[in-house]
Amino acid sequence: MSKKQHIILLLVQLIGLGMTECKSSLITAQNWGSINGRVIEQYTLKNEAGQEVDIITYGATITSIRIPDKHGNIDDILLGFDNISGYLSSDNPYFGATVGRVANRIAKGRFVIDGKKYQVSRNIGENSLHGGTKGWSFKVWNATIENGSVVMTLLSEDGDEGFPGAVIASATFRLSNDGELFIEMKSFTSKPTPINLTNHAYFNLAGHGTNAEELYKHRIVLNADRWTVTDSDSIPTGEIRSVKDSIMDLRKPTVLGDVIDKVPGGGYDYNFCLPEKSSKVNENRFVAEVEHVGSGRYMTVHSNQPGVQLYTANFLPATNATGILGKDGKRYFRHGALCLETQNYPDAVNHANFPNSILRPGQLYLHTVCYKFGVKK
Description:
Pathway: Carbohydrate metabolism; hexose metabolism; Carbohydrate metabolism; galactose metabolism. It is found in: Cytoplasm. The chain has helices at residues 3-16, 84-88, 211-215, 256-259; strands at residues 26-35, 38-46, 52-56, 61-68, 74-76, 98-99, 105-106, 110-113, 116-119, 128-129, 142-146, 149-156, 167-175, 180-189, 193-194, 198-199, 218-222, 226-230, 236-242, 254-255, 269-273, 285-292, 297-303, 307-311, 324-325, 331-332, 339-343, 358-359, 365-375. The radius of gyration is 20 Å and the shape is globular. It is 7% helix and 40% strand. A hairpin with a 4-residue loop joins strand 22 (285-292) and strand 23.
């Protein structure tokens, strides 16, 4: 079988394993600029609850999530930019992007598969972050509308950023009428390769421009009993430590402002391990709930992944700096949002005691995550 035939077969398999059909939400599409002559498309999903989600084909990126508060006022709760130039700028910290082929970090950008050594691109000191210099968040995906969902697909060539194997990937987005934003990420490969995808949405339930003043009022519950200890470069040491009796224990409702400054590193940027799975394969389990009492907005997260990176935007500019110019002229500062990036453990390819991250030919990588939005009055 030729390389081209193999890729076509993978694509057919991938698209054929789509989501089950559901009642369609309203989906509209429009052009949203261009990159090197290639049109960037924006898709808007709307439901009967007055919620809307915008997604663009650059990086399979969620650019906006507009939802009402307890008084019916609609705000955009996702940090991002007004136009494509913002997402292309060096100021963009992966806002809303689909990140891969390997999200999070790989120590020194090195790993070994079946006795063969690989060196991938290093873009954060000596290490590799979020797929390297030009990972999947920097690529233009193809998009179609199928069964009330937006399906985005991407071909990552063999050797892309140094990774082995041609990989066909898809990211499917669906918004239900009860407020569930369901994302399904899938991959097939032609050679053994590490795969670990995530969505890098930055949430602030009070509104995207309200910054730390309102983020500190968010109350979070995180269903994690352990966390992966890291060194000063955020590379896992291999130790998996219990959260019990520590600042990492968020299993009971915790107001972020009460704990965030006590966390090593100036805020959360750690992988948390969900309790061991039941016997049900690919079962979505409760990951987290976040609530902003003032607006009444809440978000719950469920996923089939073993870990979640809780990140409180520690590396956004300090409040005495200029800030990142985001949507509607708002500027974003440190602790202005939180991310709940469901994924495998960071650097899993280099730790035998972490869940397997190697995808092999004939296998399906399947990552599902559901962000549900609602209001408590």
